[in-house]
Amino acid sequence: VNTPAFATFFALLTVATNIFVVATVFVALASRVSPAWAERAARGRSTFAPDAITLAAVVALVTMLGSLYLSEVAHYPPCEMCWYQRIAMYPLTILLGIAVWRRDREIRHYALPLTGIGAALSIYHYQLERFPDQSSLSCSVDVPCTTVWIWKFHYISIPFMALSAFVTIATLLLIARTGDDESPESAIDSSPAIDSPPALEETPR
Amino acid sequence: VSNARRPAKSTPEPSTTRPGARAAAAQGAASRNRLPILLGVGAVIVVALIIAIVASRGGNDSGTANGTTTQERANVTVTGTALAAATESGLIPAATDPAVGQVAPGLAGINFTGSAVTVPAAGKPTVVMFVAHWCPHCQAEVPQVQKWRDDGSIGSDVEIRTVSTSVKSTQGNYPPSSWLARVKWTAPVLVDSPENFAAQAYGLQSFPYFVAVGADGKVKMRATGELTLADFTTVLNAARS
């Protein structure tokens, strides 16, 4: 399997996450105005919420491995903005992985800020690719952030893939939260100030 | 995944179950639906992989434009002394540029289809223009210059020689031969070597890069980055001087 195949593969995964996020946002909005959609949204939540943090961890892991593939195997040198996005993405793999292991449903307090920062960096990088003249009027011989390495389906570049991953992880973490709110323990779960310290002292297994 | 449903066997005190685990246990009824989700996600990944492999099977990295085989990189013979690195951006003031007054290195190589190209043009004022196919500023500048050539905004007395350099098949807008054909670029193109010897000889530091060479073969002015018509005219006038 060669680099163009992987680029297409990553782009298709990006499309899948885009569809998921758009559908989630649509259902969330529709559930506010329509009782029928509210019922569908509740069913969707109960289906996805238990696995949402696991799925978020999988998205983070695939994104990290994908970025490592592009830099270490395909030899696309990461530009400065790429590195900042990596700084936001790679810890998510560890944080969410440990959260899955410990069944810690409060991880969003730590993970959501990272996804927000990462998404902001990705948006800046993406628009820099679209409008390259704002940083400088020339490309340096080293690695300019304005260079587009992958361009698929007329909208997906590497920073857009990163943006999709950050937004998907945030969406999944918010779905996980709604699942908790509906559980009988929601009163306890939504007060991390009381519950988190003892939780930290207990070993999961 | 399955161990999230119930406390692990080795847990010594059941009373220390964490709130999160209790919440998960409370959703035990929902956990029957979990396998389809993970299978669905796995299926999406597998289908994407299969489509990607099938879709990229027909692709190849060798340069072909309009059905003819092209040379995207080729050996370049460099004669003379290399110019100092052009570290400034925009129009580089001739007064402080160490390269100005120096004899421009001679480049001999081929174009995309294998015909011989020499840089600079012998005995004529020349603007040597270095472009990289993946650089968005080159992608913006090249059609501009072509438009100025076509509509007579700039005279035709100054030769323009293009050097296609820093060619990488893994980067965007490859191959450069297709790109320059698409924007109907009419100036002769020299194909740089895999080591970018032509760019090195001219002290290239950023793209696009312009070197004005007079009819006497000496460097008159250098410039980097996207140029306006006024700035490009300044470079042309420097070559004429």
Question: Can you describe what's shown?
Answer:
- The complex is a heterodimer of chains A (205) and B (241).
- Chain A has 205 residues and is mainly alpha-helical.
- Chain A is 76% helix and 1% strand.
- Chain A contains seven helices and one strand.
- The C terminus of chain A is likely disordered.
- Chain B has a six-stranded mixed β-sheet with strand order 4-12-11-7-8-9, covered by helices on one side. A three-stranded antiparallel β-sheet of chain B has the order 3-5-6.
- By secondary structure, chain B is of the alpha+beta class.
- In chain B, 39% of the residues are buried.
- Chain B is elongated and about 75 Å long.
- Chain B is 30% helix and 20% strand.
- At the A-B interface, helix 1, helix 2, strand 1 and helix 6 of A face helix 1, helix 2, helix 3 and strand 10 of B.
- Strand 1 of chain A pairs antiparallel with strand 10 of chain B, so a sheet runs across the interface.
